[in-house]
């Protein structure tokens, strides 16, 4: 399906990452946003509040992030593509509804413009330390999808991708931006609406008497309906059967939770996305994402100039983790270096997939600013020893 | 020869395949629901456009038994979910049906802000004076002196006066009845369904198994007798005077009925004033 031209700001623009997220949401067909102000994400909802009223969208500033994160679920069940936007402290408050969205299979998008933490931390400065929270932050077993943009152009493109994936897999999708990408301004090219691929909601074609709201199709994703269509659905955060009715026993738990997890794991080849640079002949594989991947790219160039055979794997999708790719590389490199703006998160995933076959080193940074290329280069030299 | 069993009129609105329900013998939630279904049938609303949203707790289970589009959300959050649902499709009639712990304690912030905004929601609060689903803990509605598992020496925190809270925060319609007053309650539901904006109905409901037993209030018959004998109908009573003391008098009736612009009306008016023809209201059914 192509995008609704009304929301597409076709042309070449000079936009910040945050502004580009707003344009991406509009292009994706998002017409409901609930948010609560929080640095460094606020300029997204400011632009939404200004743009929406002329484009058939509703923005509401809720009383807190808890309310924002469930208002979007209500809007999704009313038939809207819906999103909320936040940063660390607000993201922490939203965890209960990431769980509710996962178990009720509600398509929705959360943008987290990451800042330094924990707690109030560094409100105006970047961090990349919420990745495990994005994956594991709500209680219980579930899977989500998380993307990591490294430029304003990608903020635009990945916001659309986030909506598309959330509709395709009926799951919350997180766009894990950061203060640096959010506030950098670069050229953003927005194509004509006809060139944008937008995933429509997967509505059932069955009549109410045959429709089971939680019976997955071949890809394990059940088609949806919306309130007001006469299906008289029941949607609950309790463990439920295919009818959507609560069933409190081990069998139903096994059936539901396994499907929720498997619908992402089994389709991970379709979801994962990464870019490789000079990995064909590399002995050291640098793994990075988001803003840090741009510094990592420079570090790779410097290392190559020194004669070190370094390649870079840039993760566009963080969750599900590109296990196959990392396993494949682990079989042919001496070591991995993971560059991330935290004190060790994705490095554990790389280590797990490497399973002892390649040494795994971390180029860490506590946040507040980006790494210097020299910092990462130092770890690359260590990896070469 | 078998006699035809008459169907209960509420059956058409209930998920009979989910019966029996989980509520205890003597619980007032079922009575409240019976009144509600009657009001809904009489309302002539298009039932395919009516949605029920509940939170967590005994009353939170209401959504699971009503054969409408029904949403059983997280603890304390039915109001913001309902807000998104209503704004996402303004053609829906959205009713929040939940308990006092859910709406007023953990959900208190959402309650006061939805009232302030005059969000177009009908809020039905079943007040049984304690947290019943978890076994009878003290609530923000437990009268002073009453016992609860987490107030074993008696509650010393003053409770909220819910009609006063709702009116002060901006509700357009505020009423209170008990589950003894089945006819008045059904009429109040019916009237509430015709009102716009933030509509609040408090339903005092017996919890004989937990609140009643711990406080030695007798069986449900005795608790209902208390509702009958101590209730005073005072329409238009100033809400500041309707607070509840332990086994004290219960002021019931319609206290507030004042129209004011709803969130959607106010938004539309503001946008039209500033943007004129450029304003495009939300497109539904995308």
Task: Based on the model shown, name its key terms.
heterodimer; A: 385 residues; Rossmann fold; 2 domains; B: 286 residues; alpha/beta; eight-stranded mixed sheet; 10 helices
Q: What is the gist of this entry?
A:
The complex is a heterodimer of chains A (385) and B (286). Chain A is an alpha/beta fold and 385 residues long.
Describe it for me?
The complex is a heterodimer of chains A (385) and B (286). Helices cover 38% and strands 22% of the residues of chain A. Chain A has 14 helices and 16 strands. In chain A, the strands form three sheets. In chain A, strands 2, 3, 4, 5, 6, 7, 8 and 14 form an eight-stranded mixed sheet that branches. In chain A, α1 packs across α2, α3 runs parallel beside α5 and α12 (323-330) packs across α13 (346-354). In chain A, 57% of the residues are buried. Chain B is an alpha/beta fold and 286 residues long. An eight-stranded mixed sheet of chain B has the order 2-1-3-4-6-5-8-7, with helices on both faces. In chain B, α1 (29-43) crosses α7, α4 crosses α5 (108-117) and α5 (108-117) packs across α6 (162-169). The longest helix of chain B is centred in the first third of the chain and has 15 residues, at 29-43. The relative contact order of chain B is 0.14. The interface between A and B is large, with 49 and 46 residues.
As a percent range, the share of helical residues of chain B equals 25-40%
**β-sheet strand percentage of chain A:** 15-25%
Largest sheet report of chain A:
8 strands, mixed
Top-tier CATH class of the largest domain in chain A: Alpha Beta
Number of strands of chain B: 8
What is the chain-wise order of helices and strands of chain B?
HEHEHEHHEHEHEHHEEH
The name of the CATH superfamily of chain B reads Thiamin diphosphate (ThDP)-binding fold, Pyr/PP domains
Structural class by SSE content of chain B = alpha/beta
**Largest interface by Cβ-Cβ < 8 Å:** A-B, 49 and 46 residues
Radius of gyration of chain B: 19 Å
Domain unit count of chain A: 2
* Structural domains of chain B: how many: 1
The proportion of residues forming helix of chain A, as a percent range, comes to: 25-40%
Main sheet of chain B: which strands, in order across?
2-1-3-4-6-5-8-7
Question: Quaternary arrangement of the chains shown?
Answer: heterodimer
Mean of pLDDT of chain B:
96
The average pLDDT of chain A is 98
Q: What is the terminal-to-terminal distance of chain B?
A: 54 Å
């Amino acid at each position: 399906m192509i995008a609704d031209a009304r929301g597409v700001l076709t042309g070449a623009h000079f936009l910040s990452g945050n502004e580009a997220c707003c344009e991406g949401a509009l292009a994706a067909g998002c017409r409901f946003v609930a948010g609560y102000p929080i640095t460094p994400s606020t300029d997204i909802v400011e632009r939404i509040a200004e743009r929406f009223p002329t484009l058939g969208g509703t923005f509401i500033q809720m009383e807190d992030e808890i309310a924002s994160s469930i208002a979007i679920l209500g809007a999704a069940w009313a038939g809207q593509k819906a999103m909320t936007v936040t940063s660390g402290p607000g993201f922490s408050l939203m965890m209960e509804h990431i769980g509710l969205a996962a178990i009720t299979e509600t398509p929705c998008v959360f943008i987290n413009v990451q800042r330094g933490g924990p707690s109030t931390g560094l409100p105006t400065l970047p961090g990349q330390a919420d990745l495990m929270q994005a994956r594991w932050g709500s209680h219980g077993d579930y899977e989500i999808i998380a993307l990591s943009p490294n430029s304003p152009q990608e903020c635009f493109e990945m916001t659309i991708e986030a909506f598309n994936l959330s509709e395709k897999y009926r799951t919350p999708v997180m766009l894990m931006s950061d203060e640096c990408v959010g506030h950098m301004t670069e050229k953003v090219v927005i194509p004509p609406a006809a060139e944008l691929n937008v995933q429509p909601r997967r509505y059932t074609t069955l009549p109410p008497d045959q429709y089971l709201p939680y019976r997955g199709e071949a890809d394990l994703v059940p088609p949806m309906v919306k309130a007001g269509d006469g299906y008289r659905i029941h949607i609950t955060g309790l463990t439920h059967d295919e009818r959507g009715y609560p069933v409190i026993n081990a069998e139903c738990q096994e059936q539901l939770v396994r499907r929720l997890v498997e619908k992402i794991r089994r389709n991970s080849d379709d979801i994962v996305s990464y870019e490789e640079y000079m990995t064909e002949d590399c002995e050291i594989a640098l793994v990075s994402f988001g803003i840090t991947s741009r510094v990592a790219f420079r570090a790779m160039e410097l290392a190559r100039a020194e004669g070190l055979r370094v390649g870079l794997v840039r993760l566009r999708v963080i969750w599900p983790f590109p296990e196959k790719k990392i396993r494949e590389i682990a079989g042919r490199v001496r070591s991995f270096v993971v560059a991330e703006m935290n004190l060790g998160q994705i490095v554990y995933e790389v280590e797990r997939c490497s399973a002892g076959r390649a040494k795994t080193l971390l180029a860490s940074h506590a946040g507040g600013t980006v790494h210097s290329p020299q910092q990462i280069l130092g770890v690359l030299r260590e990896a070469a020893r | 020869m078998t006699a035809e069993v008459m169907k209960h009129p509420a059956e058409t609105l209930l998920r009979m395949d989910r019966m029996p329900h989980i509520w205890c013998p003597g619980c007032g939630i079922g009575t409240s629901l019976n009144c509600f279904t009657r009001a809904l049938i009489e309302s002539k609303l298009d039932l395919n456009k009516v949605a029920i949203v509940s939170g967590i707790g005994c009353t939170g289970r209401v959504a699971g038994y009503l054969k409408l589009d029904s949403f059983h959300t997280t603890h304390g959050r039915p109001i913001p979910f309902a807000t998104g649902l209503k704004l996402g499709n303004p053609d829906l009639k959205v009713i929040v049906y939940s308990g006092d712990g859910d709406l007023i304690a953990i959900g208190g912030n959402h309650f006061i802000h939805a009232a302030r905004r005059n969000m177009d929601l009908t809020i039905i609060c079943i007040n049984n004076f304690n947290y019943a689903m978890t076994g009878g803990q003290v609530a923000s509605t437990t009268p002073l002196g009453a016992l609860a598992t987490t107030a074993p020496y008696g509650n010393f925190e003053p409770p909220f006066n819910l009609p006063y809270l709702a009116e002060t925060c901006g509700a357009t319609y505020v009423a209170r009845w008990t589950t003894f007053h089945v006819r008045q309650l059904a009429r109040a539901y019916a009237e509430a369904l015709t009102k716009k904006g933030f509509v609040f109905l408090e339903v005092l409901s017996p919890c004989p198994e937990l609140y009643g037993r711990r406080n030695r209030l007798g069986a449900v018959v005795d608790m209902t007798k208390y509702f009958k004998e101590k209730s005073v109908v005072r329409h238009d009573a100033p809400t500041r005077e309707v607070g509840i003391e332990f086994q004290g008098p219960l002021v019931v009736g319609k206290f507030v009925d004042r129209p004011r612009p709803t969130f959607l009306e106010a938004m539309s008016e503001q946008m039209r004033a500033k943007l004129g023809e450029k304003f495009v209201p939300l497109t539904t059914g995308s």
